[in-house]
Amino acid sequence: MAKIIYSLSGEGSGHSSRSREMITHLLKMGHTVKVASYNRGYSNLKDDFDVLEIEGFSIISQDNKISIGKTFAQNFNTILDRYEASNILKQKYFKEFKPDCVITDFEPMAAYLANELDVPLITIDNQHRMRYLEYPYPLEWKAEALLIENLIRAMIPRPCISLITTFYFGDKRNNRTYLFPPILRQSVLEAKPSVENYILVYATQEFDTIIEYLRTYKRENFIIYGFNTDKTEKNLTFKSFSRLGFLSDLAECKAVIATAGFTLMTESFYLGKPYLALPMKGQFEQVLNGLMLDELKYGKSALNLEKENISAFLYDIPEYTENLKTYEHKDNGAITKMLDSILADNCKVLLEFHEKRRTIFHIDEK
């Protein structure tokens, strides 16, 4: 059995949601797993796993747009904390625990230490689609696509193997990348969807503009999460976040309006819910998710929030619902089977890939 460091981004809840499923599987298979994360990743997993709290990068948004100034200030103020956390992670997890490998869900601190200390590195995420997968996009987005590809390369250097989750399957750029359906929570896999007379709305941070628009659709009912309040205003019902409550509302709604986050989109597709995606400005991954959504016709993407986009989406909900009947409903079996094969026989396959990487980059023995 392997000793594994599993690190994950703490931004949003998607990383911790899929990491929970993978860590649970690894422990079930008899591996020893040490987890490292921050923010929501730490708070969502600390009660169930052996988790070390580290520091990470935070993204600050306002009205569905990344605030460059606030994001820079937030991360600049924590530089010393990240340096200290890196030393603690290095000592407790790498020096004392002596892992056989590192698995990361887009968390750079453990990835860099894996490279520094010559530990095999596996990535499990959806972000590496933008580095290792061929996908269509308008020419106007070429500069953004190249920028995010190089940003991912800088954040997660030289992985041995990349297991990519995606709802759009294109050509791969190398033979150490493998594509899988999205990792879904067990509760989503077991959910029994129905269609009630309301639309679920989710905004990850304050997004005031959309509320003003929704008030004008008096014949529609909206259940709204993300504003950390419980109240009802005519056709709008605000709810504080609850994992079980949110999943219940997701399973029973007739459609979803939310930012273009990968996890919520793929859970919605699995449950047959048409999706109006509002990509967060400044996040190319969300733009890409929206472009793929339009390509598959499971809903609509709106780069600029305008009432006309909401109206068009509401009108076409029956068509999107019909299209979603073709969505392939798959569990997490394919990716867990692949991970098992990579770690089998004392990580034999992983070590073969690692040796190839060491040869390519001329890494000396340590």
The CATH architecture classification of the largest domain is 3-Layer(aba) Sandwich
CATH first level of the largest domain: which class? Alpha Beta
What is the string of SSEs from the N terminus onward?
Answer: EHEHEEEHHEHEHHEEHEHEEEHEHEHEHH
Q: What share of the residues does DSSP label as strand, in percent? A: 15-25%
Coarse shape: globular
Estimated structural class: alpha/beta
Radius of gyration, CA atoms, in whole angstroms: 21 Å
Q: Give the tally of structural domains.
A: 2
What's the total count of β strands?
A: 16
Q: What is the percent of helical residues? A: 40-55%
Oligomeric organization of the protein chains: single chain
Describe the structure.
The protein has 14 helices and 16 strands. It has two domains: 3-183 and 332-360, Rossmann fold, CATH 3.40.50.2000; 187-326, 3-Layer(aba) Sandwich (Rossmann fold). The chain has 366 residues and is α/β, with parallel strands linked by helices. Mean pLDDT is 89; it is low at 63-80. 45% of the residues lie in helices and 17% in strands. 42% of the residues are buried. Strand 10, helix 9 (208-214) and strand 11 (222-225) form a beta-alpha-beta unit. It is globular and about 60 Å long. A seven-stranded parallel β-sheet has the order 3-2-1-6-7-8-9, sandwiched between helices. A seven-stranded mixed β-sheet has the order 12-13-11-10-14-15-16, with helices on both faces. It starts with a strand and ends in a 6-residue tail after the last helix.
